[in-house]
Design a protein that fits this description.
The chain is an alpha/beta fold. It has helices at 16-22, 32-49, 62-71, 87-98, 116-125, 147-154, 205-211, 223-231, 241-257, 259-280, 306-315, 343-357, 364-384, and strands spanning 5-6, 55-59, 79-84, 102-107, 129-135, 137-138, 143-144, 160-164, 183-187, 198-203, 293-297, 317-318, 320-321, 330-334. The longest helix is centred in the last third of the chain and has 22 residues, at 259-280. The mean pLDDT is 98. Bound molecules: pyridoxal-5'-phosphate (PLP).
C-alpha cells in the first residue's frame, strides 16, 4: 500500500468535503438554484481577492483568463509591458504577441524579482503603454514579485496593471483594490483547493474603460460577455457546474479560517520548508521566495529528473521538477491550499530519504528540527490568540 500526497504547485490536494460537493448530482445551470450558488461564490471570491469589483468565472484553466485579459482590453498594435522572469511571465508576452500587441519586455533573471524602478522607467519611456502584465508568484521559479510596489507605480499612469495570481491568490497576501491592481487572474487548481477547470478574474473600472476601444479578436474569453451574464447571476456558456459547487464548499472552508489566517499559515509553512531544506544541506533556488511553494536546487551529483519520480512512485508524494531551462536543475514543493503544518516534516523526510537513495547525504534530522522549530513557534502563537 502507498498513501498518496500531492504537494506539487498545482494541481494541489482537494479537501474531501469539496470532492463530495463536486460529486453531487448535476443541476441545470439555467435555474434559480444554480444562480443562487453562482451569486454566492462570486461574493465569496471578492473576499479572497480583496476587491469590491465583480469576479468573473470561466470554464477553463488559468490561461483562458490570461488570454481574455489581453484580448478583451487591447487592440493589435497597442503597446504592453510584460515582466518576464520565468515560464509564466513569458506566457504574458506570448499571448500579447498572438494578438498582435507590441511587447516591451522587462526580462528578469529567473529566480529574481523584478526591480519596480525598471517598470517606472519603461513607463516613462513609453507613455502610450496600455497595460503592464506581471506574474505575482512565478511558479516556475518559486519567486514573488512585489505587486504592491508595481501598483503604486502603474496606478499613477493611464496604463492598467494586470496580474497573474494563478498560484498566489489564496496563498500570498494580495490586496487587489488597495494595491491598485486592475485585473487579477487565477485558477482553481492551486490555493483555491479545487480540481483544475475554473479560471477567475476581477476587473477595475479603469480596466473596463479599455474594453470600449479594444479591437483584438475574441469570443469565448470575452470579459464583457462574462460581465453581462454575471449581472444576471449566470454565465455566457455552460458553466462547469460541479466545479462551481465545489468552489462553494472551498470558499466556506477559507471563510471559516479567514483569508488572512490562510496567508499566515502558508507563510509559516513556507518558512518552515525553507528552513528545513537549508538545514538538510540544500540550497534554495529563488532569491525572493514565495510562501506558496519552495524551489530548491538539485544537489550536485543527483539526477534531477529521477528525484520527483522516485518521490512520487516509491514514496507516494507528488512534487514537481523544474520546467524549461530549469528541467533537472530544481525541484518544487507546494505549501498552498489544502496543506497543513505536518505536511512540511513529512515532505522533508520523504525528499531527504529519496535524496539519500540518490547519493546525497541529506541531514534529515536537522531538517526536521529546523522546520518544527518554526511550526511550533507558530502553533504556540496561534493558540495564545
Ligand atoms: C503563475 C502561473 N500562471 C499561469 C499558469 C497557467 O495556468 P493553467 O495551467 O491553469 O492554465 C500557472 C500554472 O501552473 C501558474 O502557476
Amino acid at each position: 500500500m502507498l498513501k498518496k500526497y500531492i504537494m506539487s504547485p498545482g494541481p494541489t490536494e482537494v479537501p474531501p468535503s469539496v470532492l463530495l460537493r463536486t460529486a453531487e448530482p448535476i443541476i441545470h445551470h439555467r435555474t434559480s438554484e444554480f444562480e443562487k450558488v453562482l451569486a454566492s461564490v462570486s461574493e465569496g471570491l471578492k473576499e479572497v481577492f480583496k476587491t469590491s469589483n465583480s469576479v468573473l468565472t470561466f470554464a477553463s484553466s488559468g490561461t483562458g483568463a490570461m488570454q481574455g485579459a489581453v484580448s478583451s482590453f487591447l487592440s493589435p498594435g497597442d503597446k504592453a509591458i510584460c515582466i518576464r522572469g520565468g515560464k509564466f511571465g513569458e506566457r504574458w508576452g506570448e499571448i500579447c504577441k498572438a494578438f498582435g500587441v507590441e511587447v516591451i519586455a522587462i526580462d528578469v533573471p529567473w529566480g529574481e524579482s523584478v526591480d519596480p524602478t525598471s517598470v517606472d522607467k519603461a513607463l516613462k519611456a513609453n507613455p502610450d503603454v496600455k497595460a503592464v502584465y506581471s506574474t505575482h508568484c512565478e511558479t516556475s521559479t518559486g519567486t514573488l514579485h512585489d505587486i504592491q510596489a508595481l501598483g503604486a507605480i502603474v496606478s499613477k499612469t493611464p496604463a492598467i496593471l494586470v496580474v497573474d495570481a494563478v498560484s498566489s491568490m489564496g496563498s500570498e497576501k494580495c490586496l487587489t483594490d488597495e494595491w491598485g491592481i486592475d485585473i487579477v487572474v487565477t485558477g482553481s487548481q492551486k490555493a483555491l483547493m479545487l480540481p483544475p477547470g475554473l479560471a477567475f478574474a476581477s476587473v477595475s473600472e479603469k480596466a473596463w474603460a479599455l474594453t470600449k476601444t479594444a479591437k483584438c479578436p475574441e469570443y469565448y474569453f470575452s470579459y464583457t460577455k462574462a460581465r453581462k451574464s454575471l449581472e444576471k447571476n449566470t454565465t455566457a456558456y455552460t458553466p462547469a457546474v460541479s466545479l462551481i459547487m465545489g468552489l462553494d464548499e472551498a470558499l466556506k472552508i477559507i471563510k471559516q479560517e479567514g483569508i488572512e489566517a490562510v496567508w499566515t499559515r502558508t507563510e509559516e509553512m513556507g518558512k518552515a520548508m525553507r528552513a528545513g531544506m537549508i538545514r538538510m544541506g540544500l540550497e534554495l533556488y529563488s532569491k525572493r521566495p514565495a510562501s506558496a511553494l519552495t524551489s530548491v536546487n538539485v544537489p550536485q551529483g543527483v539526477n534531477g529528473d529521477a528525484l520527483p519520480k522516485k518521490v512520487r512512485v516509491e514514496y507516494g508524494l507528488t512534487i514537481a521538477g523544474g520546467q524549461d531551462e530549469l528541467k533537472g536543475k530544481i525541484f518544487r514543493v507546494s505549501t498552498m491550499g489544502y496543506a497543513d503544518l505536518m505536511d512540511v516534516p513529512m515532505a522533508l523526510t520523504v525528499i531527504g530519504m529519496a535524496l539519500k537513495e540518490l547519493g546525497f547525504d541529506a541531514e534529515i534530522g536537522r531538517a526536521i528540527d529546523a522546520a518544527v522549530e518554526v511550526l511550533y513557534a507558530y502553533k504556540v502563537r496561534k493558540t495564545a490568540k
